[in-house]
Amino acid sequence: MINKPTYLGKVVSVSGSSLLIQLTPQVRSGLLIIEGRTHRIGQVGSFVRIPQGYNHLYGVISETSESIITGANDVDVSERRNIKVELVGESIGDEFERGIGQFPSINDEAHLVTEDDLKKIYGNNDEGQIVFGKLSSSDSINVSVDLDSLVNKHSALLGSTGSGKSTSVSSLLRSIVTGYDDVITKPSARIVLFDIHGEYAAALGDISTVYSVSPRDGEENLFIPYWCVSPESLIDFLCGPNENVKNKFMDCLVEEKKEFVRKNKIDLDEDKITPYTPLPFRLNKIWYDLNHEDNVNWKEKEKTNPSYISEGDFSKLEAPKFRPPNTTVANLVVKGGPQNMKKQLDLMRSRLLDRQFSFFLFPGKWGPDHKNKVKADLPQLIKQWVGNQKPITILDLSGMPSSRLDLLLGSVLDILFESAIWGRNLSEGMKERPLLLVMEEAHRYLSNDNNGLSKDMVRRIAKEGRKFGVGTMLVSQRPSEIDETILSQCGTLFALRINNATDRARVKSAMSDGLSGIVDSLPILRTGEAIVTGEAVRLPMRCRFKIPREGRFPDSSDPKVSERWAQPYEELDYTKLVDSWRQQNAYLPKEDK
Ligand SMILES: Nc1ncnc2c1ncn2[C@@H]1O[C@H](COP(=O)(O)OP(=O)(O)OP(=O)(O)O)[C@@H](O)[C@H]1O
Ligand SMILES: [Mg+2]
């Protein structure tokens, strides 16, 4: 075997899954020519093979070093080149498996891994394998991920800004749902992408349905009905934190929900309705009722008839007005309400009037009218998000007030996850038709010091999602800011270029395989190049994502500074910019001059 052209050297030490291999002097030049192809020896990130009878162990090179042994009079006696290798898998016959069942012994041979071997390892014709790019070291070898593990065991795509995350995500999603020539091969895929910057419609428009707060041509209106939101979060948003208001609000909420059930003849036991039952209710009615309760004065001691000046109108957000208390017998008015909620109710009214939140507080078909009827209910909402004809649903959250991102995103996650839980035995549930949630800019709502609804939900989904058919893919430029529990649940990691040492350290600790040597190469990766490790890949690998076709990149290209700054001076008008800002809509139609 030593005479084989692929022979590299022998094992000189074994410690856990790390090996030290001493290279033979024949490969000192650093090059090996096999079947006319030149192979570079000892490249960090490339593979070695250690035959064990009929089986072969495979490892990744994580370090190379040279030691010089000096003899008497400081004369160099011999040089030794060593490579450090992390074992990652084993092939038994033609089958390649992750993990190893046996350790090599000292003096076992190590061989170069040729392209043929690599093809065997990455052989990707098996069902469920998604080819998403090529190996960095060899353009002729496709790399693939196992779709089942990718979705079920969650994944994360991490990299500094501009490292190509969004482009890679769109390329990966396209590889998942389409085959050759963009023909959809997974027509029943359920992928929901939370697009924080509104960049994906450009990249995936042809295979996705886009919902947006400020829709452009071909996009649909995004509504997140307030009545789907956890009541505590909703009350905090509407009235600010106040226990007294919260309690009274909850009571009114239950009453309103019962009323909805009666009016719409829904088959539900009224006694079982709680503030958390997902039923529509009228917010303006609750506002009115709270106002009434807070301010009411009565005509008589028995407190049966309110002494109105005007009754007001909840549909117009007009509060009732009452005559002031009066003790004279002729004009008796008995004081009723404690009048301690004025501030909160005023805040609620101004929220209800704020058009910025109309996608939430006036949710189109999903908003109950003043007769407490809705044109569309929860089933239609869920269908919009996961039951589209196109395999990907993009929820463009870019027009959303950023202070409320957490609440709204968390609410969508809540609805989707609850429907996964309650539909677990149904054919339309996620267990039968799994759902992948792609979360861009995850550090914004999953950071260590953020304790909002989104983080709670993602934590839950990361821990329990697999049982109900919900998987997540997190995308972030600051892995060090993402909650550790969540990141540790991600079975597959795509690490793109990461310049920052803290972020790198976090990625290193999240990688399951002992691959610290490879992680050190993260700052030198090219744009769109990644190290992929974990459940969904057979071997840790350094690879490049498929580059999208011209015109299929996300709307996130780098600004062209030098080109633009060199253009002749032009006087510009900023009215439109301010219009967009005031109307909170970055896509106002262009006016003809
Ligand atoms: N594989 C690739 N080959 C060439 N250029 C690429 C590749 N991937 C991305 N780019 C380019 O790099 C730039 C940044 O890409 P992208 O928006 O995907 O980065 P990002 O990591 O998502 O950044 P951010 O964290 O700021 O969102 C874009 O101009 C994009 O066209
Ligand atoms: Mg991006």
Summarize the structure.
The chain has 593 residues and is an alpha/beta fold.
CATH topology of the largest domain: Rossmann fold
Helix content: 25-40%
Structural class: alpha/beta
Radius of gyration: 31 Å
Please give the order of strands in the largest beta sheet: 11-10-25-24-23-12-22-21-13-20-14-15
The distinct bound ligands, ions and cofactors come out as: adenosine-5'-triphosphate, magnesium ion
Estimate the mean pLDDT confidence. 87
Domain tally: 3
CATH homology-level superfamily of the largest domain:
P-loop containing nucleotide triphosphate hydrolases
Number of E strands? 25
Named at the architecture level, the CATH assignment of the largest domain is 3-Layer(aba) Sandwich
Tell me about the largest β-sheet.
12 strands, mixed
Kindly estimate the percentage of residues that lie in beta strands according to DSSP: 15-25%
Give the distance, in angstroms, between the N- and C-terminal Cα atoms: 79 Å
Low-confidence stretches: none
How would you describe the overall organization of this protein?
The chain is α/β, with parallel strands linked by helices. It has three domains: 7-122, no CATH class; 140-225 and 363-565, P-loop containing nucleotide triphosphate hydrolases (Rossmann fold); 231-356, no CATH class. The protein has 17 helices and 25 strands. The strands form five sheets. It has a twelve-stranded mixed β-sheet. It has a six-stranded antiparallel barrel with strand order 1-2-7-6-5-9. The longest helix is centred in the middle third of the chain and has 21 residues, at 243-263. 41% of the residues are buried. The mean pLDDT is 87. Residues 165-166, 556 line the site of magnesium ion (MG). Adenosine-5'-triphosphate binds at residues 159, 161-167, 477, 527-528, 545, 547, 553-554, 556-558.
